[in-house]
Amino acid sequence: MKLINSNWFVRARLKNRHIPLLVALGDTGNLNRASEGLGISQPAISKLLKELEEGLGVALFERHARGVVPTLYGEAMIRHARRMLNTLDNAYSEVDALRQGQQGHVRIGTILTPCADLLPEVVSRARQRFPGLELSIRTGSSRDLLAILDDGELDFLVARFVADGQQHDLHFEPLAAEPLRICGRAGFIEGPISRAELNAADWVLPPAGSVLRQEFDALFQRVGMRPPTKVVNAENLLMVTTLVEKNDMLTVLPRDVLAHYARYGMLAGIEVDATIDTDLNQGLMAFGLITKNQQLLSPAARNVLELVREVALQPEASEATQRSAVD
Known about the structure:
46% of the residues lie in helices and 18% in strands.
């Protein structure tokens, strides 16, 4: 470690009381007023000043009948003392903000559904209440995110709880079960479509093993049909929506995600028989908050966790408008 001027402050016997003393004398130019402001006696002030000057080997102040005037050396020390006090004040403010959860870095893992409305609103409120907070949001499948959470790379998840024998220390707090909708590019299909027509269509779907893919395949399996075979497997939402928008293909998306793209005229819900909608969502698991140990979360992470609960439990004023975009 590099020594700072051979630790001059040790040789000069610099004490923590010397710093506010220098600032007080610089502000008042008077020993009496400085002693009153610091709450210590004038003899103690004189002793501290003498110690500092002897330690530095220079005179910091010229004594006059009406007070003290800083020398060239004194002005330099006063200037640095002010900076040191400001730095210490800033350090305390930063530590206090971290303790209160107003600063820090919160890492959230999420599945697709909460990205449409829930998390954007959480981010908006977090920016208003905790402007010094840094947020990182990572998307993926519930299974992949659970593994990342287990490795300690995420603070908490907004996902579906997929049971695994290795996961024994996780807490799941359900929030909602967002219905799935079958969709395609706007104007692609007019009128209702049957299960057989769905089976023959070209699809862009999440990879096998994902929760959405399991629900989609079950839609056909429940009536003894094999799932569609003309499938492009894609997990990235930009790839999914671009393929559907530019081709005669269908996909399945959470209702609120579809509503987002429908508002811009990019995608539209496909009209299907009511039994198809029922079958598609028959066994769909709710998504929710997944944490390993909330007691070990940072104050910042706990604040954002509470924001997610707040937003999820609040009725959305625009819900009816959003749903009309796809119904």
